[in-house]
Amino acid sequence: MSYNPRMSIIPNAQQSRSRKKEEEADAFMRLPDREIVGCITDIGINFTVADLQKPNPTYVQQIFEWFAELLLNATRDSVEPAMRAAAEDICGEFSDVIPADTRNLMGFYVSLRRLLFECGITDFSFNDLYKPTYERLVRIFSYLINFVRFRESQTSVIDEHYNKSESTKTRIETLYTENQDNEGRLEDMRRNRKAMEMQVREKSMRNEDLKRRLLELRRNQEKVAARLEEAKQKKGELTVLLEQKTQEKLTLKQESTKLRPYVLQSPSALQDNLAELREILNNDKSHIDSLDRRARALQTSTDSFSVVSTDVASCIKILDEISTELSKEEEEMARNAKQRDALSERGNNAREVERMETMLKRQLSKWSERTEKLREQSHHKAQEAKKRMTELQAVHKQLTEEHTDKGKAMEVRRVRIEQTEKKMLDLKENIENEVHTAHDEYLKMEAHIKLYITEMEQAVA
Questions:
Q1: How many contiguous H segments (helices) and E segments (strands) does the chain have?
Q2: Which residues contact 67 (CB under 8 A, 6 or more apart)?
Q3: Which of 52, 198, 208, 247 has the greatest number of CB atoms lying within 10 Å of its CB?
Q4: How far apart are CA 84 and CA 78, in angstroms?
Q5: What is the DSSP string of 410-421?
Q6: In angstroms, rounded to a whole number, what is the distance separating the alpha carbons of residues 192 and 178?
Q7: What are the φ/ψ torsions at residue 8 (nearest 5 degrees)?
Q8: 74 touches 108 (CB < 8 A)
Q9: Residues contacting 84, CB < 8 A, separation 6+
Q10: Is 44 left (phi over 0), alpha (psi -120 to 50) or beta?
Q11: How far apart, in whole angstroms, are the C-alpha atoms of residue 122 and residue 114?
């Protein structure tokens, strides 16, 4: 078997089945020639059966263009701007290489092919435009007319979607215009931004210069402040030195003023002054000696006074101790008096207790005598109670014996009564059974009698 590259990989049965389905669909969708011609003439195109059987490509293209305009609102003129823009985009300066008619026909062919694909024609080609055949035209026109009829039946839905599409288009146009306006505003804002950036850059550079100058000024200020502190410190030191110098000057001036009269006087006057000063000095020494003696006497007197004061203080302390001892003695005396009173009270209480004890002993002797009497009486009563108990025990024994005898008799009687009751129940059951049997016998006899009477009546009749 030779290899055939054109052989299909689909099985023949499947191909025949799909072809059969297509033929059935075509047969269902196919319209008569007169109906096709009538529909085309109704839309305003002069078309006959002969034109359908022997189609003219130009005429057929006009019909297809009319259908495309009706259903898609697309013609060669409507697709021309888009095709021209596409040619310029692709070919650039050489867009005139492709003729305008060919270019428009290609765009129209794409729109028409999309329409026919939606109608159910999936194998539409250029041959259907340039070399149409009767079978192909009948099939294509049938599908187109059926689609138009279906479209007319769905006019409300189509109008609704058309209105939505129109509103969408208007919305798109408004958004496009708004977008254009926003783009213009954006460009203006960008330009303003660039201008502002330039200004900001200039201001930032100026700020940097000002910062640099400010730092330099701050450094200079710190240097000046340091120099000012040093100057203040030096000023303080100099003021202190000046004060010391002025103080020394004043002291020297005072000393010079003191020594100046001595320098101006004569030697004799100076000797007289020295003699006077010696006398004054001797007088001062004698006065000082007398004051020393007086101070020593006062010291001795103060020492004696201190000794006396210490003795007086010790005496006062002894007196205080004596007073405290006296107060303690008084407290002891008071406590002893209280204890003496308490002892006297306790003696009285003891005598009272002794008296109460004698009285209680007397009462105890009386109560002991009474208890002895009561014990004797209770013993006597216990003897009598024992005797009575023995008597009662004998009586109880006798009564228990009688009770047991009576119980035995009662038990015998109870057994006899139960036996008699049982016999009575048996008799009752026997009697009831006899009554039932008698009743049954009575019913049987009554039935026999009735039967006999009926037989007699029948016999008499």
A1: 10, 0
A2: 112, 115, 144, 148
A3: 52
A4: 11
A5: HHHHHHHHHHHH
A6: 20
A7: -75, 150
A8: yes
A9: 95, 100, 103
A10: left
A11: 9
CB 30 within 8 A of CB 142: yes
Do residues 112 and 3 lie in contact, with contact meaning Cβ atoms separated by under 8 Å?
A: no
pLDDT digits (tens, 9 = 90+) for 5-38: 444 444 454 555 555 555 555 665 777 778 878 8
pLDDT in tens, 329-370: 788 888 888 888 888 888 888 888 888 888 888 888 888 888
Alpha-carbon radius of gyration of the chain = 82
Give me the helix-helix angle, 100-119 and 134-153, nearest 10°: 70
Topology (CATH level 3) of domain 19-180: Actin-binding Protein, T-fimbrin; domain 1 (1.10.418)
3-state helix, strand, coil in the chain (%, to 5): 90, 0, 10
Q: Where are the domains of the chain?
A: 19-180
pTM summary value = 0.33
Cα–chain center distance at 68 = 65
Separation between Cα atoms, residue 172 and residue 178, nearest integer Å: 10
- What does the CA dihedral 141, 145, 151, 152 come to, rounded to 10 degrees? 150
**Biggest alpha carbon–alpha carbon distance for the chain:** 229
CA 409/CA 403 separation, integer angstroms: 10
